[in-house]
Protein backbone atom coordinates (compact mmCIF):
# COMPACT_ATOMS: atom_id res chain seq x y z
CA UNK A 1 0.00 0.00 0.00
CA UNK A 2 1.18 3.53 -0.76
CA UNK A 3 0.81 6.11 1.96
CA UNK A 4 1.08 9.88 1.67
CA UNK A 5 2.62 11.71 4.60
CA UNK A 6 1.89 15.45 4.49
CA UNK A 7 2.95 18.29 6.72
CA UNK A 8 1.16 21.51 5.86
CA UNK A 9 1.91 24.50 8.08
CA UNK A 10 1.11 28.17 8.39
CA UNK A 11 1.48 31.07 10.77
CA UNK A 12 -2.09 32.32 11.16
CA UNK A 13 -1.55 34.40 14.29
CA UNK A 14 0.96 34.65 17.13
CA UNK A 15 0.52 34.63 20.93
CA UNK A 16 1.97 37.05 21.98
CA UNK A 17 3.80 38.68 19.06
CA UNK A 18 5.45 35.96 17.00
CA UNK A 19 6.19 33.67 19.98
CA UNK A 20 3.68 30.82 19.98
CA UNK A 21 0.45 29.34 18.61
CA UNK A 22 -2.58 29.87 20.87
CA UNK A 23 -4.09 26.55 22.04
CA UNK A 24 -7.50 27.49 20.64
CA UNK A 25 -6.03 27.42 17.10
CA UNK A 26 -4.71 23.90 17.70
CA UNK A 27 -8.15 22.96 19.00
CA UNK A 28 -9.75 24.10 15.74
CA UNK A 29 -7.19 22.13 13.73
CA UNK A 30 -7.77 19.01 15.85
CA UNK A 31 -11.52 19.27 15.34
CA UNK A 32 -11.24 19.79 11.58
CA UNK A 33 -8.78 16.95 11.06
CA UNK A 34 -10.84 14.57 13.22
CA UNK A 35 -13.86 15.30 11.01
CA UNK A 36 -11.73 14.62 7.93
CA UNK A 37 -10.59 11.33 9.45
CA UNK A 38 -14.22 10.36 10.13
CA UNK A 39 -15.04 11.26 6.51
CA UNK A 40 -12.18 8.94 5.43
CA UNK A 41 -10.21 11.70 3.73
CA UNK A 42 -7.40 11.28 6.26
CA UNK A 43 -6.17 8.01 7.67
CA UNK A 44 -4.55 9.73 10.63
CA UNK A 45 -3.22 13.08 11.83
CA UNK A 46 -1.39 14.93 14.55
CA UNK A 47 -1.59 18.66 15.23
CA UNK A 48 1.29 20.53 16.84
CA UNK A 49 3.12 23.85 16.77
CA UNK A 50 6.63 25.16 16.45
CA UNK A 51 6.82 28.76 17.65
CA UNK A 52 4.04 30.68 15.91
CA UNK A 53 3.50 28.03 13.22
CA UNK A 54 0.47 25.75 13.29
CA UNK A 55 1.56 22.35 11.98
CA UNK A 56 -0.82 19.80 10.45
CA UNK A 57 0.74 16.35 10.16
CA UNK A 58 -1.54 14.13 8.06
CA UNK A 59 -1.52 10.68 6.50
CA UNK A 60 -3.81 9.65 3.65
CA UNK A 61 -3.98 7.69 0.41
CA UNK A 62 -4.57 10.61 -1.98
CA UNK A 63 -1.00 11.20 -3.14
CA UNK A 64 0.87 14.51 -3.09
CA UNK A 65 -0.87 17.71 -4.24
CA UNK A 66 -4.30 16.27 -3.43
CA UNK A 67 -6.94 18.93 -3.95
CA UNK A 68 -9.06 17.58 -1.09
CA UNK A 69 -6.20 17.45 1.42
CA UNK A 70 -4.91 20.88 0.46
CA UNK A 71 -8.42 22.27 0.69
CA UNK A 72 -8.79 20.76 4.16
CA UNK A 73 -5.58 22.46 5.27
CA UNK A 74 -6.64 25.75 3.69
CA UNK A 75 -10.06 25.72 5.36
CA UNK A 76 -8.48 24.78 8.67
CA UNK A 77 -6.10 27.75 8.43
CA UNK A 78 -8.99 30.05 7.44
CA UNK A 79 -11.09 28.98 10.44
CA UNK A 80 -8.05 29.33 12.73
CA UNK A 81 -7.47 32.82 11.28
CA UNK A 82 -11.04 33.82 12.16
CA UNK A 83 -10.40 32.67 15.73
CA UNK A 84 -7.06 34.50 15.75
CA UNK A 85 -8.85 37.69 14.67
CA UNK A 86 -11.52 37.21 17.34
CA UNK A 87 -8.85 36.79 20.04
CA UNK A 88 -6.79 39.66 18.63
CA UNK A 89 -3.77 37.41 18.08
CA UNK A 90 -0.79 39.01 16.39
CA UNK A 91 -0.48 38.93 12.59
CA UNK A 92 -3.73 36.97 12.15
CA UNK A 93 -3.74 35.20 8.78
CA UNK A 94 -0.19 36.37 8.01
CA UNK A 95 0.71 33.33 5.91
CA UNK A 96 -2.51 33.17 3.87
CA UNK A 97 -1.34 35.23 0.92
CA UNK A 98 -4.40 34.72 -1.30
CA UNK A 99 -8.11 35.15 -0.58
CA UNK A 100 -9.49 32.09 -2.30
CA UNK A 101 -8.41 28.47 -2.59
CA UNK A 102 -7.50 27.48 -6.12
CA UNK A 103 -7.09 23.69 -5.80
CA UNK A 104 -3.47 23.58 -4.67
CA UNK A 105 -2.12 25.25 -1.56
CA UNK A 106 1.32 25.73 -3.19
CA UNK A 107 2.22 29.34 -3.66
CA UNK A 108 -0.56 30.55 -1.35
CA UNK A 109 1.63 31.04 1.71
CA UNK A 110 1.52 27.82 3.79
CA UNK A 111 4.54 25.49 3.70
CA UNK A 112 4.15 21.92 2.44
CA UNK A 113 6.36 18.88 2.88
CA UNK A 114 4.70 15.77 1.54
CA UNK A 115 5.72 12.48 0.00
CA UNK A 116 4.06 9.26 -1.16
CA UNK A 117 5.80 5.94 -0.63
CA UNK A 118 5.32 2.21 -0.19
CA UNK A 119 5.37 1.44 3.52
CA UNK A 120 7.94 -1.05 4.69
CA UNK A 121 7.07 -3.75 7.23
CA UNK A 122 7.90 -1.25 9.93
CA UNK A 123 8.16 2.40 8.98
CA UNK A 124 9.90 4.83 11.37
CA UNK A 125 9.34 8.42 10.26
CA UNK A 126 10.31 11.79 11.74
CA UNK A 127 8.55 15.13 11.23
CA UNK A 128 10.92 18.07 11.71
CA UNK A 129 9.47 21.55 12.09
CA UNK A 130 11.43 24.83 12.40
CA UNK A 131 10.51 28.37 13.37
CA UNK A 132 12.30 31.68 12.64
CA UNK A 133 14.32 30.37 9.74
CA UNK A 134 14.13 29.36 6.06
CA UNK A 135 14.14 26.08 4.06
CA UNK A 136 17.91 26.31 3.48
CA UNK A 137 18.30 25.62 7.23
CA UNK A 138 17.65 21.97 6.36
CA UNK A 139 20.59 21.78 3.90
CA UNK A 140 23.22 21.17 6.57
CA UNK A 141 21.44 18.44 8.60
CA UNK A 142 19.97 16.64 5.56
CA UNK A 143 23.40 16.57 3.92
CA UNK A 144 24.94 15.22 7.11
CA UNK A 145 22.25 12.55 7.53
CA UNK A 146 22.34 11.18 3.98
CA UNK A 147 25.89 11.94 2.79
CA UNK A 148 28.34 12.53 5.64
CA UNK A 149 30.00 9.38 6.98
CA UNK A 150 31.19 11.30 10.05
CA UNK A 151 27.50 11.69 10.92
CA UNK A 152 26.03 8.50 9.51
CA UNK A 153 28.20 5.50 10.29
CA UNK A 154 25.97 3.31 8.12
CA UNK A 155 27.30 4.98 4.95
CA UNK A 156 30.56 3.17 5.68
CA UNK A 157 29.54 0.01 7.57
CA UNK A 158 26.00 -0.88 6.40
CA UNK A 159 25.97 -2.55 2.95
CA UNK A 160 22.33 -1.42 2.45
CA UNK A 161 23.27 2.28 2.38
CA UNK A 162 26.94 2.11 1.39
CA UNK A 163 26.09 3.16 -2.20
CA UNK A 164 24.75 6.53 -1.00
CA UNK A 165 21.71 8.60 -1.99
CA UNK A 166 20.40 10.95 -4.68
CA UNK A 167 19.70 14.59 -3.78
CA UNK A 168 17.17 16.76 -5.62
CA UNK A 169 18.31 20.37 -5.27
CA UNK A 170 16.19 23.38 -6.22
CA UNK A 171 17.57 26.67 -7.45
CA UNK A 172 14.86 28.89 -6.03
CA UNK A 173 16.04 31.95 -7.94
CA UNK A 174 16.00 30.39 -11.40
CA UNK A 175 13.15 27.91 -10.67
CA UNK A 176 15.21 24.88 -11.74
CA UNK A 177 16.14 21.59 -10.14
CA UNK A 178 19.05 19.19 -10.47
CA UNK A 179 19.64 15.59 -9.29
CA UNK A 180 23.03 14.83 -7.73
CA UNK A 181 24.38 11.44 -6.68
CA UNK A 182 26.43 11.04 -3.53
CA UNK A 183 29.17 10.21 -2.82
CA UNK A 184 30.18 10.69 -6.53
CA UNK A 185 28.97 14.29 -6.87
CA UNK A 186 29.36 15.30 -3.25
CA UNK A 187 31.59 18.29 -3.96
CA UNK A 188 29.19 19.62 -6.60
CA UNK A 189 26.33 19.15 -4.16
CA UNK A 190 28.17 21.05 -1.42
CA UNK A 191 29.14 23.81 -3.86
CA UNK A 192 25.42 24.42 -4.36
CA UNK A 193 23.82 23.82 -0.97
CA UNK A 194 26.42 25.81 0.94
CA UNK A 195 24.66 28.78 -0.70
CA UNK A 196 21.59 27.96 1.35
CA UNK A 197 19.50 31.04 0.57
CA UNK A 198 19.50 30.10 -3.13
CA UNK A 199 19.95 26.30 -3.40
CA UNK A 200 17.78 24.10 -1.19
CA UNK A 201 17.56 20.35 -0.82
CA UNK A 202 14.01 19.48 -1.83
CA UNK A 203 14.04 15.67 -1.72
CA UNK A 204 16.35 12.71 -1.17
CA UNK A 205 15.92 9.41 -3.05
CA UNK A 206 17.47 5.95 -2.67
CA UNK A 207 19.80 4.83 -5.45
CA UNK A 208 18.73 2.24 -8.06
CA UNK A 209 20.89 -0.34 -6.28
CA UNK A 210 18.83 0.08 -3.07
CA UNK A 211 16.13 -2.38 -2.07
CA UNK A 212 13.81 0.62 -1.68
CA UNK A 213 12.01 1.99 -4.78
CA UNK A 214 14.32 4.55 -6.40
CA UNK A 215 11.41 6.82 -7.39
CA UNK A 216 9.97 7.17 -3.89
CA UNK A 217 11.51 9.92 -1.71
CA UNK A 218 12.96 9.10 1.68
CA UNK A 219 13.01 12.75 2.72
CA UNK A 220 11.23 15.93 1.64
CA UNK A 221 11.53 19.58 2.73
CA UNK A 222 9.02 22.41 2.32
CA UNK A 223 10.08 25.28 0.03
CA UNK A 224 6.91 26.44 -1.72
CA UNK A 225 6.71 30.07 -0.78
CA UNK A 226 10.32 30.76 -1.59
CA UNK A 227 9.77 29.06 -4.92
CA UNK A 228 6.83 31.26 -5.70
CA UNK A 229 8.22 34.57 -4.56
CA UNK A 230 11.83 34.01 -5.59
CA UNK A 231 13.61 37.33 -5.78
CA UNK A 232 11.23 39.09 -3.45
CA UNK A 233 10.81 38.77 0.30
CA UNK A 234 7.49 38.66 2.09
CA UNK A 235 8.78 36.74 5.10
CA UNK A 236 10.96 33.81 6.03
CA UNK A 237 9.32 30.51 5.26
CA UNK A 238 9.67 28.64 8.52
CA UNK A 239 10.15 25.18 7.03
CA UNK A 240 9.11 21.59 7.78
CA UNK A 241 10.71 18.37 6.62
CA UNK A 242 10.12 14.62 6.77
CA UNK A 243 12.77 11.92 7.08
CA UNK A 244 12.21 8.15 6.98
CA UNK A 245 14.67 6.01 8.95
CA UNK A 246 16.18 2.53 9.45
CA UNK A 247 16.64 -0.64 7.32
CA UNK A 248 18.13 0.68 4.09
CA UNK A 249 18.14 4.25 5.41
CA UNK A 250 20.05 6.12 8.12
CA UNK A 251 19.09 4.89 11.60
CA UNK A 252 16.88 7.10 13.76
CA UNK A 253 19.92 8.09 15.84
CA UNK A 254 21.85 9.00 12.69
CA UNK A 255 18.92 11.15 11.59
CA UNK A 256 18.85 12.99 14.92
CA UNK A 257 22.64 13.30 14.96
CA UNK A 258 22.25 15.62 11.95
CA UNK A 259 20.90 18.22 14.42
CA UNK A 260 23.77 17.98 16.90
CA UNK A 261 25.58 21.14 15.80
CA UNK A 262 23.33 24.17 16.47
CA UNK A 263 24.50 25.37 13.04
CA UNK A 264 23.96 28.96 11.95
CA UNK A 265 20.78 29.66 10.00
CA UNK A 266 19.15 32.79 8.57
CA UNK A 267 15.95 34.20 10.01
CA UNK A 268 15.55 35.07 13.70
CA UNK A 269 14.63 38.69 14.50
CA UNK A 270 12.75 40.30 11.60
CA UNK A 271 13.93 37.49 9.33
CA UNK A 272 17.17 39.41 9.00
CA UNK A 273 19.72 37.75 11.28
CA UNK A 274 21.95 34.72 11.49
CA UNK A 275 21.68 32.61 14.61
CA UNK A 276 22.05 29.05 15.88
CA UNK A 277 19.34 26.44 15.27
CA UNK A 278 18.39 25.08 18.70
CA UNK A 279 16.79 21.60 18.90
CA UNK A 280 14.01 21.72 21.52
CA UNK A 281 11.01 19.80 22.86
CA UNK A 282 7.54 20.85 21.72
CA UNK A 283 7.04 22.43 25.16
CA UNK A 284 10.08 24.60 24.58
CA UNK A 285 9.19 25.56 21.02
CA UNK A 286 8.40 29.13 22.05
CA UNK A 287 10.42 31.86 20.36
CA UNK A 288 11.40 34.36 23.02
CA UNK A 289 14.88 35.84 23.11
CA UNK A 290 15.30 38.32 20.25
CA UNK A 291 12.28 36.45 18.77
CA UNK A 292 14.25 33.20 18.86
CA UNK A 293 16.76 31.77 18.73
CA UNK A 294 15.56 29.73 15.71
CA UNK A 295 14.19 26.38 16.85
CA UNK A 296 13.62 22.89 15.51
CA UNK A 297 11.38 20.17 16.94
CA UNK A 298 11.28 16.50 15.95
CA UNK A 299 8.30 14.17 16.33
CA UNK A 300 8.96 10.49 15.69
CA UNK A 301 6.23 8.03 14.67
CA UNK A 302 5.87 4.44 13.55
CA UNK A 303 3.54 4.21 10.57
CA UNK A 304 1.34 1.19 9.80
CA UNK A 305 -1.15 1.21 6.92
CA UNK A 306 -1.20 4.97 7.24
CA UNK A 307 -1.95 4.91 10.98
CA UNK A 308 0.44 6.83 13.22
CA UNK A 309 1.53 5.80 16.67
CA UNK A 310 1.58 8.48 19.35
CA UNK A 311 4.51 10.80 18.58
CA UNK A 312 7.74 10.74 20.55
CA UNK A 313 9.10 14.21 21.24
CA UNK A 314 12.64 13.30 20.19
CA UNK A 315 14.55 16.41 21.28
CA UNK A 316 12.94 16.22 24.74
CA UNK A 317 16.06 14.49 25.94
CA UNK A 318 19.10 15.44 28.06
CA UNK A 319 21.28 14.04 25.25
CA UNK A 320 20.56 17.36 23.49
CA UNK A 321 21.21 19.58 26.55
CA UNK A 322 24.79 20.37 25.61
CA UNK A 323 23.76 21.30 22.06
CA UNK A 324 21.17 23.66 23.54
CA UNK A 325 23.84 25.12 25.82
CA UNK A 326 26.07 25.61 22.81
CA UNK A 327 23.19 27.28 20.98
CA UNK A 328 22.75 29.69 23.90
CA UNK A 329 26.46 30.43 23.97
CA UNK A 330 26.37 31.18 20.22
CA UNK A 331 23.26 33.30 20.84
CA UNK A 332 25.20 35.50 23.29
CA UNK A 333 28.15 35.73 20.94
CA UNK A 334 26.11 36.58 17.84
CA UNK A 335 23.93 39.10 19.71
CA UNK A 336 27.03 41.04 20.74
CA UNK A 337 27.50 41.95 17.07
CA UNK A 338 24.30 44.03 17.21
CA UNK A 339 23.66 45.56 13.78
CA UNK A 340 26.88 44.21 12.26
CA UNK A 341 27.19 41.38 9.76
CA UNK A 342 27.43 38.41 9.99
CA UNK A 343 24.79 38.59 12.78
CA UNK A 344 22.68 40.88 10.61
CA UNK A 345 22.20 39.30 7.18
CA UNK A 346 23.84 40.74 4.06
CA UNK A 347 21.70 43.47 2.51
CA UNK A 348 20.20 41.36 -0.27
CA UNK A 349 18.88 38.73 2.19
CA UNK A 350 17.24 41.02 4.70
CA UNK A 351 13.50 40.95 5.16
CA UNK A 352 13.45 44.43 6.73
CA UNK A 353 15.65 47.31 5.65
CA UNK A 354 15.83 51.07 6.03
CA UNK A 355 18.82 51.39 3.73
CA UNK A 356 17.03 52.90 0.69
CA UNK A 357 15.57 55.61 2.98
CA UNK A 358 18.93 56.25 4.63
CA UNK A 359 20.56 56.54 1.18
CA UNK A 360 17.85 58.90 0.01
CA UNK A 361 18.14 61.06 3.10
CA UNK A 362 21.94 61.27 2.83
CA UNK A 363 21.70 61.65 -0.98
CA UNK A 364 23.72 64.75 -1.89
CA UNK A 365 25.76 64.58 1.28
CA UNK A 366 27.70 61.76 -0.35
CA UNK A 367 30.77 63.33 -2.02
CA UNK A 368 32.82 61.71 -4.79
CA UNK A 369 36.19 60.34 -3.73
CA UNK A 370 39.14 60.20 -6.14
C1 LIG B 1 10.66 36.69 12.20
C2 LIG B 1 9.46 37.22 12.86
C3 LIG B 1 9.62 38.29 13.89
C4 LIG B 1 9.12 39.63 13.35
C5 LIG B 1 9.38 40.77 14.35
C6 LIG B 1 8.79 42.10 13.89
O1 LIG B 1 10.32 35.74 11.24
O2 LIG B 1 8.35 36.83 12.56
O3 LIG B 1 10.93 38.38 14.34
O4 LIG B 1 9.73 39.93 12.12
O5 LIG B 1 8.78 40.48 15.61
O6 LIG B 1 7.46 41.90 13.60
P1 LIG B 1 6.45 43.04 13.18
O7 LIG B 1 7.02 43.73 11.98
O8 LIG B 1 5.19 42.30 12.90
O9 LIG B 1 6.34 43.98 14.37
MG1 LIG C 1 4.41 35.25 13.02
MG1 LIG D 1 6.94 31.28 12.33
Describe the structure.
With 370 residues, the chain is an alpha+beta fold. It is 25% helix and 25% strand. The protein has helices spanning 23-38, 67-87, 139-147, 154-157, 186-193, 224-229, 252-257, 321-335, 355-362, and strands at 2-10, 44-50, 53-60, 111-118, 123-131, 165-171, 176-181, 199-206, 219-221, 240-244, 264-267, 273-276, 278-279, 295-304, 307-308, 312-313. The strands form 3 sheets. Strands 5, 6, 7, 8, 9, 10, 13, 14, 15 and 16 form a 10-stranded mixed β-sheet that branches. A hairpin with a 2-residue loop joins β14 (295-304) and β15. α1 (23-38) packs antiparallel against α2 (67-87). It is globular. The model has no long low-confidence stretch (mean pLDDT 94). The structure holds fructose -6-phosphate and magnesium ion (2 copies). The site of fructose -6-phosphate has 10 residues, from loops. One magnesium ion binds next to loops.
Amino acid sequence: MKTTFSIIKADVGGWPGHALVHPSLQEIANKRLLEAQRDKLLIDYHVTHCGDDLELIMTHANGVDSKEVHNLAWETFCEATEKARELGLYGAGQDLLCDAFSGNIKGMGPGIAEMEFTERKAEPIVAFMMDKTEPGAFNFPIFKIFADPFNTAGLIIDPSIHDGFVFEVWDILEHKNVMLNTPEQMYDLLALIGAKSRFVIKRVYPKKSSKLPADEPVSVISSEKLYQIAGEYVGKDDPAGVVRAQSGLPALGEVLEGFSKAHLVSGWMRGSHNGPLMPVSVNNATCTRFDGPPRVIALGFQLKNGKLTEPVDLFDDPAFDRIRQEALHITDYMRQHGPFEPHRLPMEDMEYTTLPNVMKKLGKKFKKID
